[in-house]
């Protein structure tokens, strides 16, 4: 008998084991057993050949309808063409060059699995020289095809050198010798949630006798994945809440109350509610770990600033960590303006009861850097704003009480830990994100954080209209877009033009662009450095145009943003460096070129840069994607709503689950293969309840060593880190 830890070489031989290792990263019996089928075909049911995309590697279940051999026109030899149908009207042509002998196997009526890359020739979908496995005739089952003899045929994630039927054969060999697999899940949980034993589930997911067997097996294995993630997050949350932290309670007559009385506008109901939640967390003797999510422009920065002032009132310092120098400089200017004299203590026009605001970035000159570091180390700067430069040696805090991380997904765990390590005790942490997060994502990715949500926009914000501009189908629409931009500028407003690429040989410029949805080759994405001069000489001639992208020197970036904010530029041609936090109320129109190259959430973020003042905003999404294509449908959805939470759900539907869960990270059995954030919300919620109940009784799982070990396999250090990063 074999175990999950045995090497595959022992069972399958050197050649097969090497192929599985090289092409699929499968080395042990456990690796192979946890390499679950992607789907299950059923003889007599269709694969839906019509839905296949050109360029896609597929495995199709089909029935041979016709096989014909004819001489080739352009060269010597014969061409075998085999017509395969899927039972629902879908037709696929298989082509074999100089292999006429295959006609004996590929007889009309035979069912088979056919694997290859989809191409198109004269409007017909085809596979050139595909690998195939023919299924046995009625009543005829050989050892070679035993794994396909049942009603349900597993189709595995495969590689060209290791087709699905080879994997199925290897799984059959392994399952025939596999000892019963120990079940680490507590019997009470298994009984309460009506879950199959693990050994049964692992066998039936590969060899289901029926759809019901398959459903039970998948449900159990999904549960294991959800339970492992939730236990990891609940344990992390419990450990962090047990750490000591210095309470930073609110004071009656401090900076915060003075700031509130001087605010030129009323806080929204949501901002007040979130303020109460954060204030209560800061007053506890354990570190706050809170996620503040809200729509673009919902007022998260004011909520964060009020929290920072509460900490300063309590004798501490607060640091705001921004992902870019542009954003750090803007936060510095914006917060300094909001505070006014309260942020200029020690200056002639400063309020003696106030504090100071320090900016720390990597591009600062030595003198400015030393001055800022001195204010931070003495504590005279209660508020410190910066990029990752805050993490370096030479920046020491007097008493760091709160870390605010803006857009946490742009920072690694090590960077945030380095900032936390600058405090004597763990500081309170507030994470802000402007990308609305569906509930299941928040529960699975941010499950160790308390979540506060701002869904209400402050008064005075203007609506944003969004439209798709089909540049290929209707070039006149693009001409009209440029005229519309000029009209806004003539009315005294400003505009953004966003491109997906920098240009001039930047690192991404050398990458081959991915194929279009129809598999055809794509031109390179439009670039800032190429588009800006074309606009200046063409449709935007005579307007004051600036350029902004990530490879500009920091001082130049800051100068461009200052000029734009001051109204000295009419149009800013930029990359997504303007995606986060850039606030110019006079900007009313944004034209996004090659909009189909951006994700849904990214487009929503970009769109939030306009309509920030009293004038209405306009966002034009320019694309060459044809009508009816997935890319065009995605853009139509973005244009149809400004509800970020609806768009976040759409983004989740369209993105690969692994992008969210980190399944593309290395580590073989740590992949979450079955769990779907979109479809399994209820299961994830149930797993979280059981995780909380189990850790209430046994925080470190000392009574469940097998469970702790299985979690370590499913949620390894890299995955735990990914979950923490969000």
From TrEMBL:
Q: Which InterPro entries match?
A: DEAD/DEAH_box_helicase_dom, Helicase_ATP-bd, Helicase_C-like, NA-bd_OB-fold, P-loop_NTPase, RecG/Mfd, RecG_dom3_C, RecG_wedge
Q: Which UniProt keywords apply?
A: ATP-binding, DNA damage, DNA repair, DNA-binding, Helicase, Hydrolase, Nucleotide-binding
Q: Give the Acidic residues compositional bias ranges.
A: 509-518
Q: Which GO terms describe its molecular function?
A: ATP binding; DNA binding; DNA helicase activity; hydrolase activity
Helicase C-terminal domain location is 477-653
Keyword DNA damage among record annotations: yes
Which GO biological process entries does UniProt record here? Answer: DNA repair
The segment annotated Disordered runs over 500-524
Q: What SUPFAM superfamilies does the annotation carry?
A: Nucleic acid-binding proteins (SSF50249), P-loop containing nucleoside triphosphate hydrolases (SSF52540)
Spell out the Gene3D superfamilies in the cross-references: Nucleic acid-binding proteins (2.40.50.140), P-loop containing nucleotide triphosphate hydrolases (3.40.50.300)
Q: Where is the Helicase ATP-binding domain?
A: 281-454
Q: What is this protein called?
A: Probable DNA 3'-5' helicase RecG
Q: Which organism is it from?
A: Asanoa ferruginea
């Amino acid at each position: 008998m074999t175990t999950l830890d045995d090497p595959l070489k022992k069972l399958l031989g050197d050649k097969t084991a090497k192929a599985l290792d090289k092409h699929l990263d499968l080395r042990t019996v456990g690796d192979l057993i946890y390499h679950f089928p992607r789907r299950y075909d059923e003889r007599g049911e269709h694969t839906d050949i019509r839905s296949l995309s050109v360029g896609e590697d597929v495995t199709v279940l089909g029935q041979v309808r016709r096989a014909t051999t004819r001489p080739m026109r352009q060269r010597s030899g014969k061409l075998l063409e085999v017509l395969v149908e899927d039972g629902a009207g879908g037709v696929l042509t298989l082509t074999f060059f100089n292999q006429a002998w295959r006609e004996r196997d590929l007889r009309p009526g035979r069912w088979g699995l056919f694997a290859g890359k989809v191409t198109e020739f004269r409007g017909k979908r085809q596979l050139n020289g595909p690998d195939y496995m023919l299924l046995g005739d009625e009543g005829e089952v050989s050892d070679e095809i035993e794994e396909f003899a049942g009603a349900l045929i597993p189709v595995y994630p495969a590689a060209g050198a290791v087709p699905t039927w080879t994997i199925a054969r290897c799984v059959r060999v392994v399952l025939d010798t596999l000892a019963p697999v120990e079940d680490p899940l507590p019997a009470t949980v298994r009984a309460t949630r009506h879950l199959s034993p693990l050994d049964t589930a692992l066998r039936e997911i590969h060899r289901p006798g029926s759809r019901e067997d398959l459903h039970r097996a998948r449900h159990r294995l999904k549960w294991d994945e959800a339970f492992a993630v939730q236990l990891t997050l609940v344990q992390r949350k419990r450990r962090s809440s047990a750490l000591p932290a210095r309470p930073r309670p609110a004071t009656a007559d401090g900076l915060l109350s003075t700031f509130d009385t001087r605010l030129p506008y009323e806080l929204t109901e949501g901002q007040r509610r979130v303020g109460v939640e954060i204030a209560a967390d800061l007053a506890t003797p354990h570190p706050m770990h809170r996620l503040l999510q809200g729509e673009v422009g919902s007022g998260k920065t004011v909520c964060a600033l009020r929290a920072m002032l509460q900490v300063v009132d309590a004798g501490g310092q607060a640091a705001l960590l921004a992902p870019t120098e542009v954003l750090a400089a803007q936060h510095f200017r914006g917060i300094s303006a909001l505070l006014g004299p309260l942020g200029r203590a020690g200056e002639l026009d400063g309020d003696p009861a106030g504090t100071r605001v320090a900016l720390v970035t990597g591009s600062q000159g030595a003198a400015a850097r030393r001055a800022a570091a001195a204010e931070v180390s003495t504590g005279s700067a209660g508020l410190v704003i910066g990029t990752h430069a805050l993490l370096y040696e030479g920046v020491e805090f007097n008493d760091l009480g709160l870390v605010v991380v803006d857009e946490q997904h742009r920072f690694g765990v090590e960077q945030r830990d380095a900032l936390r390590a600058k405090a004597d005790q763990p500081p309170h942490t507030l994470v802000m994100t402007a990308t609305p997060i569906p509930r299941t994502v928040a529960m699975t990715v941010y499950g160790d954080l308390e979540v506060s949500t701002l869904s209400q926009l402050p008064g005075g914000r203007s609506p944003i209209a969004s439209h798709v501009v089909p540049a290929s189908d209707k070039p006149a629409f693009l001409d009209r877009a440029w005229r519309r931009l000029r009209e806004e500028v003539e009315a005294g407003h400003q505009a953004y033009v966003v491109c997906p690429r920098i240009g001039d040989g930047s690192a991404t410029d050398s990458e081959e662009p991915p194929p279009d949805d129809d598999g055809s080759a794509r031109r390179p994405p439009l670039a800032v450095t190429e588009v800006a001069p074309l606009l200046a000489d063409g449709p935007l001639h005579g307007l004051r145009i600036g350029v902004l992208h990530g490879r500009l020197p920091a001082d130049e970036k800051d100068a461009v943003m200052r000029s734009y904010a001051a109204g000295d530029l009419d149009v800013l041609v930029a990359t997504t460096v303007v995606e986060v936090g850039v606030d110019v109320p006079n900007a009313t129109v944004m034209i996004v070129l090659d909009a189909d190259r951006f994700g849904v959430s990214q487009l929503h973020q970009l769109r939030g840069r306009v309509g920030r003042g009293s004038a209405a905003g306009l966002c034009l999404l320019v694309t060459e994607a044809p009508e009816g294509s997935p890319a065009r449908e995605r853009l139509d959805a973005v244009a149809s709503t400004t509800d970020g939470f609806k768009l976040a759900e759409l983004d989740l539907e369209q993105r690969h689950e692994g992008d969210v869960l980190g399944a593309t990270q290395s580590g073989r059995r740590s992949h979450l293969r079955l769990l779907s954030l979109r479809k399994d919300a209820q299961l994830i919620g149930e797993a979280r309840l059981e995780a909380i109940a189990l850790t209430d009784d046994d925080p470190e799982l000392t009574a469940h060593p097998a469970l702790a070990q299985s979690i370590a396999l499913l949620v390894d250090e890299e995955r735990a880190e990914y979950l923490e990063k969000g």
